[in-house]
Amino acid sequence: MNYKMVVNSDLLGQSIPERFIEYAEAYCNGAIALTDQMLRDDQKNTWANAAVVLMLSSHSVELLMKGMIFLRQPDRKLHNTHDLDGLFKIYNEVYSENEYSFDMPFKAEYLGMPEAEIEIFKKEKKPPVPSILYRYPTATGKAEWSGAFGFEVVLFAPTINQLLSDIVRLKICIS
Asked: Would residue 48 be called left, alpha or beta, if left means φ above 0 and alpha means ψ between -120 and 50 degrees?
């Protein structure tokens, strides 16, 4: 057997924001690999695997936006750093140029709700962020997550592939 040691030296020459983006691409690649397995083998098409795909994908989006924000604003303080909607708002303020736009796949949508009700809902019924929701099988060791959850791998595959394309495109934009 031939061994090939992988070490972190390939990242040491990169800035911290660039490392965030490298990790974003790696997490996205992991999500795509598992998505591909789920598409090929129906026995792999389980909620546990779907949750891992969603966790890897959402974390990829989080790292991408953080890396991009830190590239332009290295001293930026980010609060609620797992809040993808909040990060996306900051990202769009920092990168208002068209070439940096991308379709963030984890946007919360409140169809038909007035803005005032949305704000109340967010404060009172704050849903768990994807990085928590998809990381753990239950809300606590004793209680289920509230809500109904589903995943359609055939429909999500193009979304995650588009995310990878966006990451690669954004890496080119910043180089």
From this structure: alpha
What is the Cα–Cα distance from 22 to 161, expressed in whole angstroms?
Answer: 16
**pTM, rounded to two decimals:** 0.90
Tokens of 146: 């509230």
Tell me the three-class secondary structure of 96-129, residue by residue. CCHHHCCCCCCCCCCCCCCHHHHHHHHHHCCCCC
pLDDT tens sequence across 104-156 = 998 877 777 787 877 777 676 666 888 888 998 888 888 888 888 899 999 99
Residue 38 in contact with residue 54, Cβ under 8 Å? no
